[in-house]
Amino acid sequence: xxxxxxxxxxxxxxxxxxxxxxxxVERLMGGMSNYTYVINVKDTLYTFRIPGKNAEKxxxxxxxxxxxxxxxxxxxxxxxxxxxxxxGIKIAKYIKGKPLxxxxxxxxxxxxxxxxxxxxxxxIHSRYDYAPFERLTKYEDYNKEFNHKHSERxxxxxxxxxxxxNFLDTF
Length: 171
What we know:
- By secondary structure, the protein is an alpha+beta fold.
- The chain is built from 6 helices and 5 strands.
- Strands 1-2-3-5-4 form a 5-stranded antiparallel sheet.
- It is globular, with a radius of gyration of 18 Å.
């Protein structure tokens, strides 16, 4: 089934609309393991995520759903309208903006700090550990399956991250 057919069929069911009431607006580029589209349903814009090949290796959809629900009260995430943990299809309210990879991190440090402060000052605690260093090793092992070679830029970023490991492991 084509992505457009999948989007229209899913939206017909989720929103109880006719196929003609679902329009594809654009595909968002970027992302590592998904296809993300902006769609219009009854004059409201949404993002529609379709997992790509091997996406399940990077995201446990049950854990994702748990975290979406966990932080909902903080209002830091766009509203998820639909999430199928079996297929990974996700529909959420669209927020206009630029993808992170197109932004300069220094232009948004204050906003990022405020969001992190809101999370850390909340009483919300996940039952899951993100385990960034173990996760990094797991992801690198996946890359080995495909004989992927990292760039020097990757190794520089990795070494910077690893330089903080002793500090981060104290939390």
